[in-house]
Amino acid sequence: MKSAVLLIILCFGLFSCKNGTKTEATKPDSLNYPFKPRYSINWQPGDEHNALLVLNCLKKYVAGDIKGSTAYFADTSEFIADKFHFKGSRDSLTKVIGAMRVASTTVSKQFDSWMTVYYPDKKATWVTLWYTEKMTDHDGKTDSIYYTDDVMVKDGKIVLYDEKQRTFPEAVAKK
User: Fold this and answer.
1) Deepest of 89, 93, 108, 119, by most Cβ within 10 A of its Cβ?
2) Residue 22: inside a domain, yes or no?
3) Do 153 and 78 touch, CB atoms closer than 8 A?
């Protein structure tokens, strides 16, 4: 009798376990979204060499090497930021970015993460970065900003840099 109960419990345990089949993610084109994207939602993981390119560009910027930083941009590119829009030659971009960087004596970036995606229907690779930038001006005042940047890379060059920022609240003064 004991062995019959044990056999029933064992059979029940074996058949009650999941069968290990994988569930496939729902395809975006089979869903009825309440909004239509302006760009595309058809993406796949991209080549991480593009993230490396963008990160090297930013490393040069942090080091104050503006010509080295802008060498990663295409001959003509676009840069969008808060209340700022540039579209033009790499030489002009070098002057603009140089003027921005010279306002700070030191700059550092601490990255939370980044992701590289490829949009086959657009034939475009985007690198998205999430990070905090800390900078110190010539008067010794330190500030920090949180950025989410979307960077389009084509043919090994940055063609569009779209920077979004969130400023942190002022520190509470100690009494």
Assistant:
1) 93
2) no
3) no
Percent of the chain whose predicted confidence (pLDDT) is above 90: 77
* Residue 123 belongs to some domain of the structure: yes
What the block records as the tokens of 145 is: 């900003």
- How, if at all, do strands 73-81 and 157-167 pair? parallel
Report residue 6's pLDDT band, with 50, 70 and 90 as the boundaries.
very low
Q: What is the pTM of this model?
A: 0.81
The pLDDT, as a whole number, for residue 7 is 46
User: Is residue 14 in a domain?
Assistant: no
Q: Where are the alpha helices (DSSP H) in 19-118?
A: 49-63, 66-70, 90-101
Residue from 111, 173, 120 nearest 146 by CA: 111
- Closest by alpha carbon to 43, among 113, 120, 153, 114? 120
Q: How many domains does the chain have?
A: 1
The verdict on residue 91 lying in a domain is yes
Query: Helix or strand or coil: residue 47?
Result: coil
